[in-house]
Write a structure and sequence with these properties.
The complex is a heterodimer. Chain A is mainly α. Chain A has three helices and no strands. Chain B has a single domain, classed as Four Helix Bundle (Hemerythrin (Met), subunit A) (Up-down Bundle). About 0% of the residues of chain B have low confidence. The chains are: A mainly alpha, B mainly alpha.
């Protein structure tokens, strides 16, 4: 499917969904869920990001090659965050006798 | 692919076989640039993750001093600007010049509203002595953590705002070119690529908003 065939209706629907998700993340963050607050915030942000990338940035209608570039970018970001936190979060695990 | 435009009138550069190939190459290049931008902002997001993991309570407490209302309004404004941007691309794709120009202007307007609100927030932070440096003031016991939080706040939103300013420059250029009728359904690569950039800047804010503004919301 060509991206030029996407209708304004689709874009409007994505726009309203994004606003709805913004309201959701605002309301959810006001309730104390403990550790789940951070999880909820990140999950909603990722869903919003996915909608923007797939529809507004036409990723859904682009060649798979673009998806490979996006995946590569996210993979390297993942490596950076995982290895860095892997260091900081495990420092307390070592005990010296 | 059939060439409907005479070669010397076409906007296909000579190294490309077709307009489609040129468009694919340009889009690929833009996505690769955006992947490097992910790493650019990624360093700051990683730093944020480390300090928030080390001081979760302090970050939540300090975050309450951000203006959550303005942050939420700005999120909606930026999402709306992404919507008008995608409509601009749609206008270009369908050779609708007036729609393209109007949507580009609307996008610039919304982008400017965002920056205006952002600068007002910065002004407030200066007044409240929340700007890291010699004049920084924050009540104990979280003074040092607060300075780290606000350093990250200014770095992350500042780098984001810088991208917005660059985006506004791109849009202004596009508006002039669009006004002169440079874009049509057969050639709109600059509109499409600037759109990708603008949406990417929106994406960054989609993560900044909950990570900076909302983490202390449940404490109110």
């Amino acid at each position: 499917m060509n991206e030029a065939a996407v209708s304004i209706k689709t874009y409007a629907f994505i726009f309203v969904t994004l606003l709805f998700l913004t309201a959701t993340t605002f309301l959810v963050s006001g309730v104390d869920l403990g550790g789940l607050n951070a999880v909820a915030a990140l999950v909603i942000a990722m869903v919003k990001a996915l909608l923007v990338a797939l529809f507004f940035m036409h990723l859904r209608y682009s060649r798979p090659l673009m998806m490979v570039v996006v995946a590569a970018g996210l993979l390297w970001l993942g490596i950076m965050i995982t290895l860095t936190l892997g260091d900081f979060l495990t420092r307390g695990w070592l005990t010296y006798r | 692919m059939a060439q409907t435009i005479a070669p010397h009138f076409s906007q296909v550069a000579h190294q490309f076989d077709s307009a489609e190939q040129q468009r694919d190459a340009a889009t690929l290049g833009m996505w690769i640039f955006l992947a490097t931008e992910v790493m650019f902002f990624g360093g700051l997001f990683t730093t944020y993750s480390v300090y928030r993991a080390l001081h979760p309570l302090a970050f939540a407490e300090v975050s309450r001093h951000l203006n959550i209302t303005l942050g939420t309004i700005n999120t909606a404004v930026l999402i709306a600007s992404s919507f008008t941007m995608v409509l601009a691309v749609y206008g270009a794709q369908h050779s609708r010049r007036k729609m393209l120009v109007l949507c580009l202007v609307l996008t610039m307007l919304l982008g400017s509203v965002f920056l205006g609100i952002k600068f007002y927030e910065y002004y407030q932070k200066f007044v409240e002595h929340f700007v890291p440096g010699s004049a920084f003031q924050f009540p104990a016991p979280y003074t040092r953590e607060a300075e780290m939080f606000f350093s990250l706040y200014f770095l992350m939103t500042g780098l984001h705002a810088l991208h917005m300013i660059v985006g506004l420059g791109l849009l202004a250029t596009l508006t002039i070119l669009a006004w002169r009728g440079r874009f049509s359904s057969s050639y709109y690569n600059p509109v499409e690529l600037s759109g990708l950039y603008w949406h990417f800047v929106d994406l960054i804010w989609i993560f900044l908003y909950p990570l900076l503004y909302l983490i202390g919301h449940h404490l109110r």
